[in-house]
Amino acid sequence: MASDKIAAQRATEQNKKLKQDLQGLEDDFVKMSKDKLELTEKIAAEKYLNRELTIKLAEVEEKAKEMQVKLKAKDDEMIRLQSSYREMEKQCELLINLSKSDSPTVLEAVDNSLAKEETVIEEEAEHLLHSNHKSLSEQIDDKNSLRLQKEEAMLKLQDRFLKIMGEVADLSDEKHRLEHIILQLQNETETICEYVALYQQQRSLLKRRDEERSAQLKVFQQECGKLQSELEELTGILARFADDKELSSYFLTESKRMDMERVMTLLSNLKNNSLIDPKKKNIDFKNFYPCNCCSGKLIEV
């Protein structure tokens, strides 16, 4: 029974340890799930940032298209001014031809007017060219800057995405490993439960056999007590026979006297038997088994 208690205690301790290990694995699994959720949120944030950059790039491209339209309009204006300049040159030539027949004062006034108009046209053309060049240069610089920013952001996003995917792969491997360990612990727990059930079954069987043995011992003690009382009664009767004077002459013969002594000796031996007198200790109990299932020795499990 002591070995059964030790085995049950060890099985209980091992089961408790396995439950603690299982709880630790469940905590690690929950932590891993939280980490995976955080990584998923980071990926979503990066996707949102990439989408914002794409929208900004689209806006810049739209502005570039608008600038190209404006530049085309200014080019058209430049062409119109050049056409006007050519018209003015033609008018100048016409006026020069006409000046041959006009007075010098009129010719000088016309020359001054044409010179002023030519100067104004040249200034407007130069201003328009400078404005178009500056606008186009700024537009190209903005576009190049946004393109570089987008390329840099895409590279960073790609690096972070690859890093996150690597972490997700590592977490998946760790998850599979923990699931395998949990399965093994569950199998071991089931095995321990089977051992505990078997131990309880064996304990119940031993308890039932011990109860049967106790009942048999009780019956044996009752029979021994009954036999002892009958022997005491028989001893008293024989003592009365010995005190009887009529029977004394009967036992004077040698053979009858020896028979009487033999009867008294047998009665004395029966009274002194250890099965009747529990105080006797002259029996060797080294081969006595407490029950029919064990030898009485403790076995370490």
UniProtKB/TrEMBL annotation:
- An example Gene Ontology cellular component term from the record? Golgi cisterna membrane
Show the InterPro entries listed in the entry.
Answer: GOLGA, GOLGA_cons_dom
Where the record annotates domain Golgin subfamily A conserved, the positions are 1-83, 118-245
One short Pfam family name for this protein?
GOLGA2L5
Keyword Coiled coil present in the record's keywords: the answer is yes
Q: Give the keywords, sorted.
A: Coiled coil
Recorded coiled-coil stretches: 1-91
Any GO BP annotation:
Golgi organization
Name of the protein this chain belongs to: Golgin subfamily A conserved domain-containing protein
